[in-house]
Automatic annotation (TrEMBL):
Stretches the record annotates as Disordered: 1-25
EC number: 2.7.1.6
Pfam families assigned: GalKase_gal_bdg, GHMP_kinases_C, GHMP_kinases_N
InterPro entries: Galactokinase, Galactokinase_CS, GalKase_N, GHMP_kinase_C_dom, GHMP_kinase_C_sf, GHMP_kinase_N_dom, GHMP_knse_ATP-bd_CS, Mevalonate/galactokinase
Limits of the Galactokinase N-terminal domain: 42-90
Residue ranges annotated for the GHMP kinase N-terminal domain, each copy included: 130-223
Similarity section: Belongs to the GHMP kinase family. GalK subfamily.
GHMP kinase C-terminal domain sequence ranges: 338-410
SUPFAM superfamilies assigned to the protein according to its UniProt record, in alphabetical order: GHMP Kinase, C-terminal domain, Ribosomal protein S5 domain 2-like
Protein name per its UniProtKB record: Galactokinase
Species name: Schaalia radingae
EC category: transferase
Sorted UniProt keywords: ATP-binding, Carbohydrate metabolism, Galactose metabolism, Kinase, Nucleotide-binding, Transferase
Amino acid sequence: MTTPHTPEQADSMHEGGSAKTEDLTFNDPLTFDEGALAARTLFRETFNADADGVWHAPGRVNIIGEHVDYNGGICLPIALPHRAFIAATPRSDRHVRLVSPQTRDHIDEFDLDTVDRRGTDGEVSGWAAYLVGVAWALEQAGFGPLRGFDAALHSCVPLGAGLSSSAALECAMAVAINDMEDLNLLGGDDDDAGRALLVDAARRAENDIAGANTGGLDQSASMRCTKGHALELDCRDMSVRSIPFDLAHDHLALLVIDTRAVHSHVTGEYAQRRQACEEAAGILGVDLLADIDDEQAALDQLPGEVMRARVRHVLTEIDRTRTFIDELASGSLVGERLDRCAALLDASHDSLRDDYEVTCPELDVAVDAARASGAHGARMTGGGFGGSAIALVDESAARDVARAVADAFAEHGFEAPQFLIATPEEPAGKVAE
Ligand code: GLA
């Protein structure tokens, strides 16, 4: 098993623009043209030929509904403007050659015949595992045999920041293979059904080849979100509904605070939380914690305060997410509705901190500083143990809140945080050229 996201990589791998103003670093996304050009240029320099096409897929932030996907709960992600770009050309054999800006002096080479569950004796590792893993998973799903390919990657999703940089790689690769191999899973009336199939392949790549037993939220967001909307994702059956999400209309913004405390889901804590939920479901006689009707009765049956706290988080988070979605669907985020939604974000973080215990000092300081400096609500987003927090702020206050968070980090002796503004953008696809 490998840990693809090290702090050093995170420092060097963000390839978008970053603007330092008043000592604050905002990571700006690449435009489609910039991303496609960067990937095409790397492809040409490496393989001495022009790529057939360029495909892209976004990172995500989850607005609410955390650590509930693998329990059959409801999540509410948006796709970020920050995306991975892959320039690729199919080959006539089963060989795969990969290059990224960080490895431009070295081409990673694989053979699709030797990729197997959890890689080939460690041969498939790091970021390449996410890409080759998707080809492997599509073959497992019956879409093979596939041809090999040459591919050049360029991503501006901050790495190790809890913003699904790995799902962006997987999903860009999945849509690339769909087109290169004429799988015809996208477009037309069945577009979302095809996307759901590609989500499965991307998730299997992550679970079985990269070795991170994550729950499907990230790949669903990257593949199935739509521009201007949040995605209501019911993880019991992976059904989705698009919910209009236009913060700018209400003069609000979603500030993402990348704490620079690097997390990795390949490591044990995430797996332990998941295992605790599965054990609890076993004791309660349900397949998924989301199947529980009577929260108090369930909690009373569980042995030990720690397991009760884990389950309490999951059940209360599912309720909060439902309520948040109802609020969003019923009108503008102003006045008391805004206050209620903000309180739900705050309560989500507190539950992740106290009951699920997946925050860390950097996340808690970020959230506290954001709240104290005028954010309506704030919470960690993603798997936790590092990564990013989000703050719902007045558009005009985003920079002041960022400044307050940066000051609080300096006081605590933490590395300077970085920021971006999250807007709901389009899902994975081919770059039109
Ligand atoms: C990570 C995982 C997701 C999900 C979140 C927590 O992002 O990849 O599957 O479990 O953590 O909500």
